[in-house]
């Protein structure tokens, strides 16, 4: 019965995703780092940095699905949550945008490496279906949202759980800081590619970061609260699957 409820909710989330796909207004600046915006050298560089994490993520996902195939629905839920939240975009710095990322939930559930795959698949579909991001800039967008964000979120979650044991606080901070760290990295990527004439990379980073902060800080807080609500729902209606997931993650941490 609980598995059926989880499947029903997953279908609702996917239905919402379809709605966003076909009803969302398009904008030239309503993107991650948009197609063709980065110089070729930087686009290649971020692809090269991202690919090793993607390979490690594939290995982690393969291990999870082989050892505990019951968690495939939870993986789908984490991916759908990331897709929906990261599709809710607010135009921000020229050539980019502010939006929730949704990667904190998946990082808490499965760790950061699987999210490098789930997040990059989400970004690929958004680039192809929503003109949100791009293929040449996929490496940069995936590194910031699917690698850096989940790593920060997971590290914060582990640290707070170890030091305080307060799970809801840990989940809130993981989701919020995974969101914020994504845009810190994006600001750095833009600053490296487009240093200011006066002040260079540092001045450009400060400018991009300050502009992002106006929209991203409240979005990060909202994402943290929403992630807690989703976690509470999972505890109420999918406690068996969540317990299985948590036992598996403890085993991974010990090994």
Automatic annotation (TrEMBL):
Pfam families for the chain: CbiM
Keyword Magnesium among record annotations: no
Subcellular location: Cell inner membrane; Cell membrane
Pathway annotation from the record: Cofactor biosynthesis; adenosylcobalamin biosynthesis
Main location: membrane
Annotated GO CC locations: ATP-binding cassette (ABC) transporter complex
Gene Ontology terms for molecular function: cobalt ion transmembrane transporter activity
Gene3D superfamilies according to UniProt: 1.10.1760.20
Keywords of this entry: Cell membrane, Cobalamin biosynthesis, Cobalt, Cobalt transport, Ion transport, Membrane, Signal, Transmembrane, Transmembrane helix, Transport
Membrane topology classification: Multi-pass membrane protein
InterPro entries tied to this protein: CbiM, CbiM/NikMN
Residues spanning the membrane: 40-61, 73-90, 110-131, 138-157, 169-196, 208-234
Superkingdom to which the source organism belongs: Bacteria
UniProt record, GO biological process: cobalamin biosynthetic process
Known role: Part of the energy-coupling factor (ECF) transporter complex CbiMNOQ involved in cobalt import.
Family label: Belongs to the CbiM family.
Quaternary assembly: Forms an energy-coupling factor (ECF) transporter complex composed of an ATP-binding protein (A component, CbiO), a transmembrane protein (T component, CbiQ) and 2 possible substrate-capture proteins (S components, CbiM and CbiN) of unknown stoichimetry.
PANTHER family listed in its UniProt record: COBALT TRANSPORT PROTEIN CBIM, PTHR43627
Identification of the protein by name: Cobalt transport protein CbiM
Origin organism lineage: Bacteria, Bacillati, Bacillota, Bacilli, Bacillales
